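User: Here's a chain of 431 residues. Predict its fold as tokens.
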Amino acid sequence: MPSIRPTPLSSYPTAQAWLAQFTRNAADRAAAEAMLDAMMLLNEEQVSAAIRAQLYRIADGRKGKHRRAALYAEREFTEKAFFESERTLDARGRAHYRAVGRVGPPSVKPVRGGTRVGSEGFIASIISTVVETRPDIFMNNPGPDRIRGKTAPAGALVIVTDFVGSGRRVRRILDAMWAVPTVKSWRSQGHIDVHVVAAAATASGMASLRRHRLRPNIMAEHIAPTLAGMGWRQEWEWYDLVKVYGPDVGRGASRLGFGNSGALIAFNYRLPNNTPAILHKSEGDWRALYEGAAPNDLRPAFGLRSEAETVAAAAAASGVALAPALSPADATTVLLLSLMRGRWRRGKEVALAERTGLPAPTVMEVLRRAVTDGLLRSDGRLTDAGYATVEAGRSMERRRPTIPTEAEPYYPQQLRAPRLLFSVRRPSGRP
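Assistant: Prediction complete.
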């Protein structure tokens, strides 16, 4: 479920600054407040949990020789074909194209040739975790040669994403799959099923994907509200706001958002461009609600703790007493260095994340920084500087053990003779 927020989104300082731009009349500002408070808010933990839950449901339903499922992170896909093919001859000497390769297309690729990586990095991390927990079912980004493997072939292709807005990006991937003759043959002969797994989606986006020739099975945990949703009392007021205020175009989108989705959804790590441009795009004097990750003051709106609260909870769960004057970043470093014992081994970041409750990517980033700063060796052992940092960052307070006392002390009423020591032999005969 979306996070329960006792305080409306419109009441936070960041939202108040955004609302101050609606200056035509008081009714516009009231309508903008209502639009903010109608938005679905999802944080990383909720997105990850929703995706994992659906993938595990797929795993529970996979049986037989072709039970394995190939997982691919959704991204902006510009290639014409999903897999490479080579021309070959069949047993009768007829030429045809056959998909080849052990690895599928890159899961993470900078957007439009730049250096920015979209949410596919986050999704790729979720896929890696799921594959580690169910390697008997899931395959991470395999190519055709692994999909058709003799011992453990895959019977399902699964596209994984955090959000389906208009559905166009996923449709491009489905089109690229359809452009591969081998995939088309697999699907027509019933050798594979195609699935799309999303944490959230609009109803129109799901409907668009279901009409694709591959006939994918669409799974979404949350259905995002839109401007055109049924039952919105302020629907036409909101359309008027989008028409009058803000930039004429968004991030590759119209005023209504990419594909005219008009989606009312926000993630703590990004605002999709499927939302109206007045929400996600800054231009001229107009400022977006936020760009990139949500500001710190909005963390409670997404059900997230502050950095200080997060590391304090992690320290308490790990039994580590931290000095109170540490910044959240320094406290996290001291906490993780305190828990580092012995050499580094594969999967140790997962164990540390499990013990502390911190996200595994956060653990890895802190440890990488510790290596760079000379606090941790590359093999995972603390340096002298690392030991000094831990000693300085740990609380010096020593708690004395609490000794329980009886409310009513016990006093013996009679004395018994002391028992003989086992080393003393008793006479074997009668006295």
